[in-house]
Amino acid sequence: xxxxxxxxxxxxxxxxxxxxxDSFSGDGLLNSRDALRAALEQAEDFLAGGADILDIGxxxxxxxxxxxxVEEEIARVAPVVRALAAEFPQVMLSVxxxxxxVAEAALQSGAKMVNDVWGAESGC
Length: 124
Hints:
Helix content: 25-40%
Strand order of the largest sheet: 1-2-3-4
CATH superfamily: Dihydropteroate synthase-like
Number of strands: 4
């Protein structure tokens, strides 16, 4: 796959979609009555504001956050990635996870990048 980005030529903007109830930024979309709809609306806002990449995460990385089981994280992330890929096929989708099974599910659902804040050092 060829990247649509010319890395090093400009700054790219990433919109973060936190599919958690406990996001450190206070925007956890699982607190919404319809998390999928909330994620699509937030993605629309990010894209209208100039975001180049949408990053979807299903586990909070805030200090003291509880780990989320793999199956639950996939259930949070994969449907949103599928919906975003269908709604915005031209947009680069990223998944924020350190778990290989979650990354694989997201990539199969339409994500094109993996954002692993632990740098593949977590052992999961």
